């Protein structure tokens, strides 16, 4: 979406020659269109046609901020508002038909460009949607906020009060953790969408069986056979893993629209899983309306493919081979190919449509996928799809000269998944990174933490940092999308470091800070981009905020100091999960019930504390020697002296050793104390029926009790960390302007949502980014040698 182009992504069941997009300034879609364009859809199957169609304005008449634009699509003579296109309601119920995709009596869906004034900008973000996870889905909260902005806009134009951007920061669904009933629907829908002739034999799947021959609930061992770790340690977790291309395609459509969902749940699988899945089914109509009325950008993480995707060298060796004794796993590579090619056309095509223009990598991939639709089992065609989608060509090699990390090899012409968003005249940019396919794997001469093959990766390789974070000075404020938190909760990262080999997979040992060299290299690159940085992340199934006030003299990896020390303020806002609230070992701590308080115990089970808030650190690009630090003769050298980079916690100044070498950087971390909207609400379930009550009465009570447990847990959540389903919104304070050095920004987490997405609770994390305030960074650490 730019000031001179609008792109709408759409999936269809019927072929037509061309889809035409027209953009108007009125909700009736009358008069002269301000932007028009068309494109022929791509056939991926008998009943699946996709297109991202772009309308362009005349060069002299770009789209304007502060104005609502409306659009319609023409499908060979049939419009969005015609009966049978998005709704089968007859013409005498035309007004009800309009409500399927529009708000407030409008006939057409609409959008508004990001405003020039930061104080008007509304950015929503969220991640992680697992269909059968507990609690109500927070994705419909987007619909709730758009609708409320229309109903309560007051004297201000709707274009200035509605949400402007929705950033879906990863894990649009969980391919590795699917309920049995959801897999049954996805397999069936995939076969219908692609056609029976498309049914693909899966290599290594018990005699090359097709997806429909692999029953729900019976795929756990096959997932292990594919080389995946999604089924570790419990094979039942991946019992219904997606595998066929049709299943991945259907899963996107089930998550974004109610069109494919049947009216009633088939009696398949565990009743609790089925009930939770159907709770999501009841709100996807609101999700479709929301996605049609806000500018949407997405980023992938691992679960769109499989849990732990590309986690470490060992994972890569299991799937892509090790170049020696372990050959590539045919089933694993096929599933990755199906997932990545679906990810490309269902996510990336809408994100960066220019990469799908004629002759570009995306267009070549579309051609290959159309060819595969005619020959679904043709291995050379599948190999072409894999190469263009960016499926690795083999295992990580040795690092190139001058680098400590190596990337998975990929074809030079493969599609890229990172991108940068800018709008002329706006004082901000959005950098969307790709930390999953462009991560780095450490060199063999680096001391391993567990063993080399299982060690944490660099979430971005050296080359990826240089390519994905633009060089040079950026705008007034830079927003960066990074799948998992750049700055984590200390005791969680400590647990990830103190694990055995089995826990590598269960604890997801991949936090950026587990690789200090790449972590500080990334921090340095961001610091040189802008004085004010907002990192948006998801992944972890809880939401919070943390500020880093940074003083930097020599960014890590630079050969010498900067012309002048650089002061940067960074805030990280995490919003997770849309539908996957705290489960697993993290839920045993009060993180998911009472949050945490600075300096207070985090819970009896883990018995840990947030030791300091704020937390001060200093760093040096190289290891410190005995000449740099005075250490008593009877004491061992502190571990931080041997590290590269050397990094010392300097919060407690009284415990600090005498250091005679000037530090290269200092920073202060401060976990933000969120302000909660209302006190906790206690909910009491209805009276339990007698044991001899009818089965339907007993079941109704169980459902009600489950809802009460979810809602009660939501309302016990503490204010610092929100550990239940949530959606984040980024807002800037009134008066925010590039002429002002301080910038006041806040994340609002909407949570405790009901079935419609309406939140009963919200937590705000305000902070001021002031790169002129040196009192927010630790004082100088080093001293002159006596």
Write a short abstract of this structure.
The protein is α+β, with helices and mostly antiparallel strands.
Radius of gyration: 26 Å
> Strand share of the residues?
15-25%
Q: Give the neighbour order of strands across the main sheet.
A: 13-14-16-17-19-18-24-20-22
What structural category do the secondary elements indicate? alpha+beta
Span between termini: 61 Å
| Portion of residues within helices | 10-25%
Count all strands and give the number: 28
Task: State the major sheet.
Answer: 9 strands, mixed
Assembly level: single chain
Please state the average pLDDT score: 89
How many helices? 18
Structural description of this entry:
The strands form six sheets. Strands 13-14-16-17-19-18-24-20-22 form a nine-stranded mixed β-sheet. The chain has a seven-stranded mixed β-sheet with strand order 11-10-9-26-27-28-25. About 3% of the residues have low confidence. It has 18 helices and 28 strands. Helix 2 crosses helix 8 and helix 6 packs parallel to helix 10. It has 786 residues and is α+β, with helices and mostly antiparallel strands.
List keywords for this structure.
about 775 residues, alpha+beta, 9-stranded mixed beta sheet, 7-stranded mixed beta sheet, 18 helices, 28 strands, globular
Secondary structure blueprint with pairings:
Layout (H helix, E strand, L loop, with lengths): L4 E8 L6 E6 L10 E5 L2 E4 L2 E9 L11 E8 L2 E2 L14 H5 L11 E3 L10 E4 L13 H12 L6 H4 L3 E4 L11 H15 L25 H6 L19 H12 L14 H11 L2 H8 L3 E4 L14 H8 L9 H22 L9 H14 L4 H11 L15 E2 L12 E3 L6 E5 L8 E2 L19 H7 L8 E5 L8 H8 L5 H4 L9 H14 L2 E6 L6 E9 L13 E9 L40 E6 L8 E2 L8 H4 L3 E4 L8 E2 L5 E7 L3 E2 L18 H22 L9 E7 L10 E11 L5 E11 L17
Parallel strand pairs: 9-10, 10-11, 14-16, 16-17, 17-19
Antiparallel strand pairs: 1-5, 2-3, 2-6, 4-5, 6-7, 6-8, 9-26, 12-15, 13-14, 18-19, 18-24, 20-22, 20-24, 21-23, 25-28, 26-27, 27-28
Helix pairs in contact: 2-8, 4-6, 6-10, 10-11, 10-12, 11-12
């Amino acid at each position: 979406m730019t000031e001179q182009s609008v792109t709408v992504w759409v999936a269809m069941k019927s072929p037509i020659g061309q889809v035409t997009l027209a953009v108007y300034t009125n909700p009736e879609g009358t008069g002269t269109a301000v932007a028009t364009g068309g494109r022929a859809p791509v056939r991926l199957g008998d009943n699946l046609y996709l297109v991202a169609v772009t309308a362009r304005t005349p060069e002299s008449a770009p789209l304007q901020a502060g104005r609502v634009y409306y659009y319609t699509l023409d499908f060979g003579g049939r419009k969005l508002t015609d009966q049978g296109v998005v709704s089968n309601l007859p013409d005498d119920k035309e007004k009800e038909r309009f409500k399927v995709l529009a708000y407030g009596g409008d006939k057409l869906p609409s959008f508004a460009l990001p405003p020039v004034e930061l104080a008007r900008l509304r950015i929503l973000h969220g991640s992680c949607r697992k269909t059968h996870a507990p609690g109500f889905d927070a994705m419909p909260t987007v619909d709730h906020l758009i609708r409320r902005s229309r109903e309560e806009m007051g004297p201000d134009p709707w274009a200035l009060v509605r949400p402007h951007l929705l950033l879906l920061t990863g894990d649009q669904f969980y391919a590795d953790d699917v309920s049995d009933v959801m897999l049954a629907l996805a397999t069936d829908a995939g076969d219908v969408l692609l056609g029976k002739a498309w049914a693909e034999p899966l290599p290594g799947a018990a005699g090359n069986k097709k997806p429909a021959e692999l029953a729900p609930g019976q795929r756990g061992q096959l997932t292990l056979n594919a080389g995946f770790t999604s089924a570790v340690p419990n094979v039942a977790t991946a019992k219904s893993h997606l595998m066929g291309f049709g299943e991945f395609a259907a899963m996107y459509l089930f998550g974004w629209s109610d069109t494919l969902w049947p009216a009633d749940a088939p009696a398949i699988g565990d009743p609790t899983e089925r009930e939770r899945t159907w709770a999501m089914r009841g709100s996807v109509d609101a999700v479709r309306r929301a996605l049609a009325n806000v500018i949407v950008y997405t980023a992938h993480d691992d679960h769109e493919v499989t849990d732990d995707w590309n986690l470490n060298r060992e994972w890569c060796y299991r799937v892509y081979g090790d170049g020696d004794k372990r050959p590539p796993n045919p089933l694993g590579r096929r599933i990755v190919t199906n997932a990545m090619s679906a990810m490309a056309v269902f996510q990336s095509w809408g994100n960066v449509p220019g990469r799908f223009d004629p002759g570009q990598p995306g267009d070549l991939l579309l051609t290959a996928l159309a060819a595969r639709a005619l020959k679904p089992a043709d291995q050379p065609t599948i190999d072409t799809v894999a190469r263009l989608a960016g499926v690795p060509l083999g295992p990580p090699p040795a690092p190139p000269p001058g680098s400590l990390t190596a990337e998975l090899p990929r074809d030079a012409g493969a599609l890229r998944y990172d991108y940068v968003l800018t709008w002329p005249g706006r004082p901000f940019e959005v950098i969307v990174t790709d930390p999953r396919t462009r991560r780095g794997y450490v060199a063999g001469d680096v001391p391993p933490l567990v063993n080399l093959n299982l060690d944490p990766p660099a979430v971005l390789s050296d080359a990826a940092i240089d390519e994905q974070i633009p060089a040079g000075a950026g705008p007034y404020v830079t927003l960066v999308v990074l799948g998992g938190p750049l700055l984590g909760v200390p005791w969680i990262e400590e647990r990830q470091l103190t694990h055995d080999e089995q826990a590598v997979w269960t604890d997801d040992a991949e936090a950026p800070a587990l690789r200090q060299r790449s972590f500080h290299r990334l921090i340095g690159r961001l610091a040189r981009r802008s004085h004010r940085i907002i990192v948006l992340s998801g992944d972890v199934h809880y939401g919070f905020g943390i500020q880093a006030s940074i003083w930097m003299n020599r960014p890590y990896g630079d050969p010498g100091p900067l012309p002048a020390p650089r002061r940067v303020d960074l805030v990280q806002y995490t919003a997770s999960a849309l539908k996957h609230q705290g489960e697993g070992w993290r839920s045993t701590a009060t993180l998911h019930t009472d949050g945490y308080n600075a300096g207070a115990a985090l819970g009896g089970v883990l018995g840990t504390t947030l030791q300091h808030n704020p937390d001060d650190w200093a760093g040096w690009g190289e290891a410190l020697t005995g000449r740099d630090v005075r250490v008593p003769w009877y004491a061992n050298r502190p571990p931080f002296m041997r590290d590269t980079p050397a990094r010392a916690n300097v919060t407690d100044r009284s415990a600090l050793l005498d250091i005679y070498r000037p530090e290269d950087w200092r920073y202060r971390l401060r976990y933000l104390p969120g302000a909660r909207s209302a006190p906790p609400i206690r909910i009491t379930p209805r009276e339990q029926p007698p044991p001899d009550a009818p089965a339907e009465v007993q079941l109704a009570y169980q459902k009600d009790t489950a809802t009460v447990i979810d809602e009660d847990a939501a309302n016990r959540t503490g204010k610092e960390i929100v550990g239940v389903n949530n959606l984040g919104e980024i807002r800037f304070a009134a008066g925010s302007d590039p002429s002002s050095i301080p910038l006041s920004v806040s994340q609002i987490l909407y949570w405790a949502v009901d079935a419609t997405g309406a939140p009963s609770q919200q937590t705000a994390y305000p902070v001021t980014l002031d790169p002129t305030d040196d009192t927010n960074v630790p004082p100088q650490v080093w001293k002159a040698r006596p």
